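Next comes this protein:
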Amino acid sequence: MKTSVKKKVNKQYEYVGLLFIAPWIVGFLVFQLYPLISSFIYSFTNYSMLNTPGFVGLKNYKDILTVDPNFWQSLKVTLIYVVFSVPFKLIIALLIAMILNIKMKLVGFFRTLYYLPSIMGGSVAIAVLWRFLFMKDGFLNKLLATIHIQGTDWLGDTRFSLFTISLLTVWQFGSSMVLFLAGLKQIPEELYEAGRMDGATKVRMFFTITIPMLTPIVLFNIVIQMINAFQDFTAAFVITNGGPANSTYLYGIMLYQNAFQYFKMGYASALSWILFVIIIALTALIFKSSSSWAHYEDGGGII
């Protein structure tokens, strides 16, 4: 009798648990799984949102890879953007985290202050502000003029436009900084004491203790920030709309234009799946290489 009552109570707890998780399940099915499957199907069609989808096989993929010159330009620009912005962002995040790891007054306030750009940086308002800062007659050039330095057209010159856009992404280093800060607090102080007893300098301890102990977090940050950088869209679209001369024509802009300006939804779906494959391949490559540079306290690693 007691066993049956216990089973009944456990069953009730299962229903309560399912009830609490139901919103996530519904959200996942409706907003993630269904769009994922739909986009894969549409990538093999000529769907334009204005007519019934017609099956075209691999034509979209073939046209993207062999006919469309914008694909290779956007991919080139995006790769440069990723290679520049991700390492630079992580370097800044680690330096700020090390500063905020020092015991000082109002450290909580400064940690919050440095995290704010990650909350606001992805907004259209900040992108517009960035444009006003770096335009030819913007605030930065006016500031440089006060010290008799001739500014350049940061957004209109193909040599500097992508760099200027990338700076907005680098400025949003808050999430990586928090992870680095958490990792720094987990490093045993005994390791630094042993290093000081051996006469190691702070620079040497940074490269032989701090960096090796942080490599799992470095790995995580590289993967997450790389994925985010490949999908960046707002800044380049609002500030330059891909110009000048397609120098900031990120992959996200090309995908958006095909889907919502040219209404080539099938073509855009194929573009999104190509991007998905690229991200998966690069992520797998990073994980594969991590066995030679990511170190774990238990000697384990990522398979």
